[in-house]
C-alpha cells in the first residue's frame, strides 16, 4: 500500500462527514421552518384585575406567508384544540417575497368569530419603508 492511500482515504472520509453534516443541517432547517410549535407559558402579573385571572391568549407570529395544509387546515386544527380567550397576531405573518395576505386571511377566516383578534404588523408587512 502506498503512503498516499491512507491520506487520500482520510481526506475522502473527512469530506464525506462534512457533506453529510451540511446536508443534515439543511434538512433540519427546512423541517424546522415548516413546523408549528405550540409553547404554553404562564405569566404572573401583580395587581392584575380579577376579570383577567386565568385569561388565555393565543399568540400567532412569524408564519411568513407559509401555509400549513389546504386553507391552513393543519394549523387551524391545532388552534381549535387549544383553549384561549383572545388571539394576538404578533407580526411577521407575511414575507417580503410573497405578495398578498391570503395565507393570513385563511387563518383569520378559520378562527372562531366570538374570540377577539388583535393584529400587530411586525417588520415584514405592507407598511415597510424599504
* Main structural class: mainly alpha
Using only C-alpha atoms, the radius of gyration works out to 23 Å
The fraction of residues in strands falls at: 5-15%
Q: Considering DSSP H and I runs of 4 or more, what fraction of the residues is helical?
A: 25-40%
Categorize the overall geometry. elongated
Structure annotation, total helices:
3
Largest sheet composition: 3 strands, parallel
Strand arrangement in the largest pleated sheet: 1-2-3
Mean pLDDT: 85
How many strands in all? 3
Helix-strand sequence:
HEHEHE
Unreliable residue runs? none
Instruction: Give the CA-CA distance, first to last residue.
Output: 62 Å
Write structural notes for this entry:
This protein has helices at residues 4-32, 73-80, 102-110, and strands at 57-60, 86-89, 117-119. The chain has 130 residues and is mostly helical. Strand 1 (57-60), helix 2 (73-80) and strand 2 form a beta-alpha-beta unit. The relative contact order is 0.13.
Name its key features.
single chain, 130 residues, mainly alpha, 3-stranded parallel β-sheet, 3 strands, elongated
Q: How would you concisely characterize the structure shown here?
A:
The chain has helices spanning 4-32, 73-80, 102-110; strands at residues 57-60, 86-89, 117-119. The protein is mainly alpha-helical. The chain has a 3-stranded parallel β-sheet, with no helix packed on it.
